[in-house]
Write a structure and sequence with these properties.
The structure is a homodimer of 186-residue chains. Chain A contains two helices and 15 strands. In chain A, 43% of the residues are buried. Chain A is globular and about 50 Å long. Chain A has 186 residues and is mostly beta strands. At the A-B interface, strand 1, strand 8, strand 11 and strand 13 of A face strand 1, strand 8, strand 11 and strand 13 of B. Strand 11 of chain A pairs antiparallel with strand 1 of chain B.
């Protein structure tokens, strides 16, 4: 059937002819980390995260839904934890779910005024990302952070706003623990 | 946090102050089974399915998403397997995901012209329910069929069309196996 895929609930991996695979290498994420010196010392070809995705309808279809699993590696650039690029939805009011299969981390949520807060992500947490919020996952643990996501097929992605201004806060290691700090203090 | 709940991936159960619990008893499902004599002989207070649901925004909110887990008991009314009431979405183009945690069954999908087909549901299957399709889960196994779902918060529910006309096909036991038959031949 066109409309069925399979998931291994232990690993989060998706299987089926319609499943798409993508990956993001460190060198593609240059702009998001605050410590450019530390960034330059790391191998740019390292894969920071992979995504298995299932898009049963064309992007832009109103009323449809997409499904994906993200595998975010553990690690840091300087004192800043590995994280996803992050984005607003192009259609701003579109929400999304993240549901954690394995690992621990944080979900950074920034509203349109630039105010950022963090929510815990841990095995079994189902984080609701409301509309109008830029969202980014951060791996603060020692194993891959694996989470499934479901989001509207007409949400679209606005990476530009984030690429230009970034998030207003960063998740960094302080005294061996994750801490959310204002970008201006990093 | 208002926007976080937790799931036990082994059982599908949802936890958190915002989680709502509902149940459907056999007597509330009288109209959906074809064998009314067999129905009358069964205890009407038996719970056929339970739903844990998470609705972080008001029903009707455009762009939002709901999440739920359904626990559908095994059993039959005569030769017809236990199943959910089934519905179209009130906003017809709204899609939905069913992702199976445990058990085995079938997803009945009926289009607006009354044509019904069935897809397999088994542990790890992620079934995409396109817009414009009435949907109903059927437990054809010996253990509860447990699946998580994600759907738009403005989808709404149209149970009326199904209550009046039913699905055009039934999932019944034939020679010890599930078979989809036209209602007119039941």
């Amino acid at each position: 059937m066109n409309s069925i895929i399979h998931i291994d609930w232990n690993t989060g991996r998706l299987f089926g002819p319609q499943v798409q695979h993508s990956e993001k290498k460190l060198k593609e994420l240059a702009h998001i980390f605050h410590d450019q010196t530390a960034f330059s010392a790391l191998p740019g070809d390292d894969v920071i995260y992979r995504v298995d995705s299932f898009k049963p309808v064309t992007a832009g279809t109103e009323g449809g839904l997409f499904w994906g699993t993200t595998f975010l590696e553990p690690g840091k650039v300087g004192d800043e934890y590995f994280m996803t690029a992050g984005h607003f939805h192009h259609v701003r009011n579109r929400a999304e779910y993240y549901a954690v299969i394995e690992g621990e981390g944080a979900l950074l949520l920034m509203d349109e005024s630039g105010k950022t807060h963090a929510e815990a992500m841990q095995k079994g947490s189902i984080n609701y990302i409301p509309g109008y919020m830029a969202h980014r996952a951060v791996n603060t643990g020692n194993v891959p952070l694996v989470f499934v996501a479901s989001w509207p097929s007409d949400a679209g992605y606005d990476y530009e706003t984030i690429a230009h201004d970034g998030f207003s806060a960063l998740m960094v290691e302080r005294d061996g623990k994750p801490a959310l700090i204002e970008r201006s203090r990093a």
